[in-house]
Design a protein that fits this description.
Layout (H helix, E strand, L loop, with lengths): L1 H25 L8 H4 L1 H34 L2 E4 L6 E10 L5 E9 L2 E8 L3 E2 L16 E7 L2 E10 L2 E10 L10 E3 L6
Antiparallel strand pairs: 1-2, 2-3, 3-4, 5-6, 6-7, 7-8, 8-9
Helix pairs in contact: 1-3
Length: 190
């Protein structure tokens, strides 16, 4: 209780000093001696009211964003469907308690879906962007995403009439260039 009281006192003094700096910086007139000490309650009330209003606006915006995130978790995002019935699908699984997003990546062949992997970022990669991601032009579909300093990427091609999935990655701190593409066996992934 004593610690909380000391913290509140320190907060009040910081607010008072902040208000003094703002007033002195933006006001062309000098305040009379003792002005801030005598009017501290008014200044604190106005300052805290302003901060509460800002927090309320931010809080209301976050609640509406969470509602749209809940709707996303129920839907699947189809990524670049092909004429041959082969596509990659990112399913938004929502965010965990620490607000980290989760997506499941699936390969769909004629409507049959096989899970490739769980990642933290996933969206469509358009054919126009294939060169930027070092994806072959003959890839049927591609997807991937970047989150917190790293990215996971996927593309699918046909070899001998069968879909083959490639996985790539990139990190902020990597010392080489590229996406480290390699063919993966999707049956061994969860």
């Amino acid at each position: 209780m004593v610690v909380l009281s000391l913290q509140l006192r320190a907060l009040r003094l910081k607010c008072l000093r902040f208000c003094q700096i703002l007033y002195l910086h933006y006001s062309p007139l000098k305040p009379p001696e003792g002005y801030f000490r005598h009017n501290m309650k008014k200044i604190l009330f106005v300052s805290l009211s302003f901060l509460a209003a800002v927090a309320l606006v931010i809080g209301c915006n976050n609640k509406s964003d969470n509602k749209t995130d809940d709707k996303k978790a129920d839907t699947a995002i189809t990524v670049t469907p092909s004429e041959k019935g082969v596509k990659l699908i990112c399913k938004d699984m929502g965010a965990d308690s620490m607000e980290i997003p989760h997506y499941d990546v699936y390969l769909s062949v004629d409507g049959v879906q096989t899970k490739i992997k769980s990642v933290n970022g996933c969206s469509d990669i358009t054919k126009e962007s294939y060169e930027q991601y070092q994806i072959p032009k003959d890839a049927i579909a591609a997807c991937g995403g970047w989150y917190a300093g790293g990215g996971d990427y996927y593309y699918v091609i046909l070899k001998d009439g069968k879909p083959v999935v490639f996985e790539g990655w990139q990190e902020e701190q990597q010392e080489d260039d590229g996406y480290h593409w390699k063919e993966i066996n999707i049956n061994s992934h969860p």
